[in-house]
Structure formats: structure tokens, C-alpha cells
Amino acid sequence: MTQVRIFADSTTDFPPHLAEKFNIGVVPLYVVYGEECYKDKFEISTNEIYNRFHTEGKLPQTAAPAPADFIAAFTPCVERGEQIVFISMSSKISSTYQNATIAASEFPKGSIHVVDSLNVSGGTAILALKAAKLAEDGATVQEIVQMVEEDRKYIDMDVLVSQLDFLHKGGRVSSVQHMIGSLLKIRPVLKMKEGIIYSADRYRGKTEKAIERMLTSFIDNVNKIDRDLVIVAQTLAEKAADYVKTTLLEKTDIKNVEIIEGGCAISCHCGPGTVALMYKKKPSYAN
């Protein structure tokens, strides 16, 4: 039986132990400061980009892996006779999917299967982890691709942004919105639909109170959630993420809660102090 190997991009923000446990290959995006270019999570850390922002007032750009990066990552697996399923972040917010597809065309037909997760961060990670478990159990490439294309419709997320500075610097919040939001301590909640990120709600007041309200809303609706896995993502908010994980395990019957740390490609858009819940909804409750 041909072995299937799962790959994803670095915006999944897999902790090393998870990527190693499930044998998931990670292809990094790039973090770019002018002429300086670094591989996300491999050559630059989240702390470094925040330090540069506070000392220089500069935010980096992010860039998708080039087709050559994918070719370099995929070649050893193909040479071993493995088939690859690459699960990409949403094609609607990055050219990662397109570049992976270009790279796949350089290999024998059927060697590489590129799938658009229509998600990002923990949303893509949930799909990649499930895909890796299916591969471990001997599922075919077609079965794995079919699962991703079906389940991606049910992935949801609640991303609580602690401060508006980074959304403002990245052009996602106007100067007026930034000024008013900062004065009123408004903290937006971002969600994703059909591959596009949008502002779904907002909380006013301290971050701690906003986290409590987000948690309460989630717990009140936990019957709508697939309880096999929930991912808590955080950017320099370890204590808050630990609190969210502990609360979910104590107050719900969720089987597994994993914490991931946002890498540079994610963190330079949402800023420090961000806490997010990523999960799969039951099909009967999906919008």
C-alpha cells in the first residue's frame, strides 16, 4: 500500500510535538522586511517581530512559499514512493495554494494532491490532523481529499483581537475606526466564512472580560460542536490560553484541547494578546 504523507503550510502553527507525532510536513511562509526575508517560525520568532514593531514601528509583509519551496519539500517523499496531500491555507487570502498547485504540476500525475482548506491557523490544523490520522489508518488519497473538502465547510473560529494597532497598520482598520476603537477599548471578534476573514462581533472593556464572554458563549453552544478536538490559538497570551483550555476541559465534555502559538505570518496581522477558539461544528448546526 502506498504511504500517504500530509503537508500543510506554517500558518497551521503546529507545535513541534504534534507535527512530529503525526508526521506532518510543514512548508513555511516568508516574513519580509524590505530586503530581509525570513522563513516563518524557522528563522524568525513572534517575539522578534513584536520587538521590531515596538522599537521601529515596522510591521513585516508576508509572502507565500514559492513553487521551488514546495518542490524541495515534496521531492524526497515522492522519491520514496509516497503520495502527498498538501492542505493549504485559504486560497482567498494567500497565493500559497496557487504556488503549491504549480509545484504539483512538476511531478508525475497523481503524486501530489493540493487541497484548499478555506481556513487558516487552527482551522487548517484541525483538517490536517484529521487527514494525518486517516493516512495513519491506511486511508487512500481520494478518501483524505474528500474528507477535507467536506469537513472544511464545518470549521469555525472565534478570534478575539486584543488591540487594533496591528489590524490598523495592516490596512484592515481605518484610522477613524482605530482611534474610536482604542478609546472605547473595543475588541473585535473575527470569524471566517468561505475562505474570507470578517468581523463578526465586538466586545468592549478589558481583555479578560471579553475572554470570559467569548468562553461563556462557546460553552452555551457546545452541543453544536464536534467535541473530539478544539484548538486554542494565542499570540503572547499563554496564561489566557491555559485558562481557556482548563475551563473547557472542566466545564464541557470536549475530549482534547490543544494550544498553538501563532507564528509570525499570523501574529503580524492580529497582534499580541490575541486568543482564538478553532473548532468543527456538527453538520446539522453549520451555517
UniProtKB/TrEMBL annotation:
InterPro entries named among the record's database cross-references: DegV, DegV_C, DegV_domain_contain
Keyword set includes Transmembrane: no
Top-level taxon in the UniProt lineage: Bacteria
Keywords recorded for this protein, A-Z: Lipid-binding
Listed Gene3D superfamilies: 3.30.1180.10, 3.40.50.10170
UniProt protein name: DegV family protein with EDD domain
Organism of provenance: Paenibacillus turicensis
